[in-house]
Specification:
The protein has 372 residues and is of the alpha/beta class. The protein has twelve helices and eleven strands. It has a single domain (22-349), classed as TIM Barrel. It has an eight-stranded parallel β-sheet with strand order 5-4-3-2-1-8-7-6. The protein has a three-stranded mixed β-sheet with strand order 9-10-11.
């Protein structure tokens, strides 16, 4: 269905089929450390290809490396400038505690006892910087006024490599505690802000049910989040329905559900890893079209409360990295350094993303996110 829609899309603006921000992507991996000029042109390219929402990490450890020291906003300021300059809604994932606020030396360690209130304090600082009355907007009157109104609290806490709890500690209980601190900290500074739960992957529906029961998260968030990684045909829609059923079971069926990561890496036969969660370029294109298309068809996004879908990821290396990770083959573009220069190569999935977004958004876009 979407292929036909994309082919028939007129050059002039047509009727929009999805809410603003529905088409998203993740900003991660090596490209995050590219030159400022590369990043500016890349965010412009995102906007031109229909990206209206971008998810990226705000590193707590970078902002507050020392206890009692001032909060360093230089890294997060740069990301906000990129987003607002190109008309892209930003979803920060606030994660990675500094050494002095971690439970252990592990980079993905949960906060220590004092770390929970320190994390809440950092959230206060972020809202006071980028929220509706934030100092950032006074410091940058030349930029469009687009305050951040959504904050995601950590990433995939049910996975030990993201939430490395100590032996004998319960991941759901400790994450529930962090969410409680976070919810009240954010609402104190911006009552209308959206608190977004960390995305859950793998056994997401069961983990969500457990998080409700043990973490006591009901009433502590505005938006749920899912990472439905699957190689099954139309599997994303299936996993969304299962997840939404758990939300309804716990009386949160009316809340929004954001797909803050999804995708199918094209590393099959290249990554050297035996994983069924891989395909080739053609399979990635089909997965992308089907996943977006299943939600747009019959307005399922509206029926299921799915207003944002963030592809993972915008750009990746498409070669074996040190970790040997299948997601090195997940980008809409290939990014690499060649002779000291930043080089991008569009993958087939980029064209598919642009065509589907253009059809559903009702127009082609400029580098500032406006209809061309």
């Amino acid at each position: 269905m979407l292929a036909a829609l994309a082919a028939a899309a007129p050059a002039a603006a047509a009727k929009r089929e999805v809410p603003r921000g529905f088409f998203g992507a993740n900003w991660s991996f090596e490209v995050v450390k590219s030159s400022p000029s590369t990043q500016d042109s890349t965010w412009g390219r995102m906007a031109q290809n229909g990206v209206e929402a971008q998810r990226t990490t705000f590193f707590w450890s970078h902002a507050q490396p020392n206890p009692g020291g001032p909060t360093d906003f230089s890294e997060t300021d740069a990301k906000v400038i990129l987003a607002v300059s190109h008309g892209i809604e930003l979803l920060p994932v606030v994660a990675f505690g500094p050494w002095w606020a971690r439970e252990s030396d592990a980079p993905h360690s949960p906060p220590s006892g004092v770390g929970y209130s320190a994390y809440a304090g950092y959230l206060n600082d972020l809202v006071e910087r980028y929220g509706p009355s934030g100092s950032f907007w006074a410091d940058h009157p030349e930029l469009p006024y687009r305050p951040i109104r959504s904050w995601q609290i950590w990433n995939e806490p049910s996975a030990r490599y993201q939430w490395d709890v100590s032996s004998g500690e319960n991941w759901a209980s400790s994450y529930g505690k962090l969410l409680r601190y976070s919810y009240y900290a954010i609402k104190d500074r911006d009552p209308e802000a959206h608190v977004v739960v960390a995305g859950l992957a793998n056994r997401a529906d069961r983990d969500l049910d457990y998080l409700y029961k043990v973490g006591k998260i009901h009433g502590l968030f505005d938006v749920a989040a899912l990472h439905p990684y699957t190689a099954q045909p139309h599997g994303v829609l299936t996993l969304i329905r299962r997840f939404k059923a758990v939300m309804k079971k716990h009386h949160d069926g009316n809340k929004q559900l954001w797909i803050t990561e999804f995708g199918l890496p094209a590393g099959k036969g290249k990554s050297g890893i035996k994983s069924t969660l891989q395909t080739d370029d053609a399979g990635m294109v089909k997965s992308l079209r089907d996943s977006f298309g299943d939600m747009i068809e019959k307005r399922r996004w509206h029926k299921l409360g799915v207003t944002h879908m963030y592809w993972f990821t915008w750009a990746s290396r498409y070669s074996r990295g040190g970790k040997g990770w299948i997601f090195d083959w997940s980008g809409l573009l290939k990014y690499r350094k060649k002779n000291g220069q930043d080089v991008f190569s569009a993958r087939p999935a980029l064209g598919a993303y642009r065509d589907v977004a253009r059809s559903a958004e009702g127009c082609a876009k400029t580098s500032t996110g406006a209809c061309a």
